[in-house]
Amino acid sequence: MKRQIIRFSTANFNVMTKTLKESGKDESFVYGLFSKAQSPDCEIYICRQLMLPDKNELKNQSCVSIEPDKKYQITSYGLAYDQGLSIIDTHTHPFSTNARFSSIDDSYGIENAKYIAKKFPEDCTMGMIVLGNGFDNFEAHIWNRKKKNFVPVNRIEILGAPTKILMNNRKSKVKSNDAYARHCIIPGWNQELLEDLKVFVCGLGGNGALIFDSLLALGIGGKNDWIRTCDPDVLEASNLPRIPYAYPEEVGMPKADIAQLHADNKTPKLNVRCYNEDVKESKMQNIIKEANIIIGAVDNDGARQLLNGLASRYMIPYIDIGTEIIPEGLAYEAIGQIQTFVPCQTGCLICSGAINPATAAMDMMNEEGNAAYERAGYVRGTNETPTPSVLHLNGVVSHLAISQFLRLIFNDGFRGKEYLHYNRQTATMMSASVEQNNDCPACGLKGYLGAGDEDEAELEDLSDLKDSKAFEKMKV
Predict the structure, then answer these.
(1) Which terminus has fewer CB within 10 Å in the chain: N or C?
(2) Number of C-beta neighbours around residue 323 at 10 A
(3) Cα(90)–Cα(280) distance, rounded to whole angstroms?
(4) pTM of this structure
(5) Strands annotated E in 124-225
């Protein structure tokens, strides 16, 4: 049985819990519309839209009961039907610090789940969440249409600034050592959250290797989850000065294999897997769907555009890193930049102009296409001298990226600092915000933000109720 995960952006979860809090000590209720993503190991339900009820759209509201009004239910179900989305209802048990479904909840849920299974498109289903006092404890389940029963959800991911991972039936963790003792005395530090994260790193060169080593040092993947990396390249002699865990006898070996050996020796208890694969492979993209944060240490716009698109589609924060040394006669310019894209909170790399679509298209061509364009003179040859690079520039920028990573998940003054630019020659750093562009093809109103595995990139506006065929076909 695949693991079931429910995923919210921090922005959506905050809006939902604010609405639920307004009922005080009484139970409250919200419908959400969810897209779906599948990987070999799990099914992920991604919140695309919340249907926030007015007070008159909730009935029999008390400290022990709540019921959605028929009109509110029909509107929510109608939108879910029209858009081919699943519907998950979230309600509260404000009296409980160990939220559990009641027999009434189960009866109501089964009845509605069977209705959706009978009337809705095949990929749609029903889910339920009950949140206890404080919104940090829950029970949740998703209806399995084939087996005709609810299957448990043990993980709710709230991705953004701050990041939260809610685990059902979490057991107290016994500290086996004091490896992170000096981290844990920092105000606001949450080692348990770090150990619950799934982080994917694309690229294990000068920047990616330092990012990877830092994530190991933070204890990512220490208990419930993982670090995953990919890089299809082999180690060259010119890489040795910039990858601290690489040795001369390893020249010619895949960078991923070298990184795996390093992780196994340094942090054998962490769940780490390094793949000698290109991010363009479907196997890698299926793993990325499960990630809570993507870190891109790539050197071309094609890979950036791919990672940016996956981040938007699956609502995963993406940290992009780049460094460059530009010779100018006898002088040079040395710069680095980090941009963090948080779906529903900031603009993406396309919004900021960080990706050149024409260059990205060239980068994503296969070898045959590249050769044809090279012969025609549209692109430079691939056998040119490698670009300049040096450890200290990689080090500064990569560790700034780790600082942004921690700033993001702990929400430590992140807003307004989504973009960092470092100039080595002037020893200066600039930060800026990146606003979302509503016309962006990735994260804009007509983009594929939160679309999951949906094939159609241009989706209808979920707030448009006109011409809804569902109202003619359904009786709830």
Answers:
(1) N
(2) 24
(3) 36
(4) 0.89
(5) 126-132, 138-144, 149-153, 155-159, 164-167, 199-202
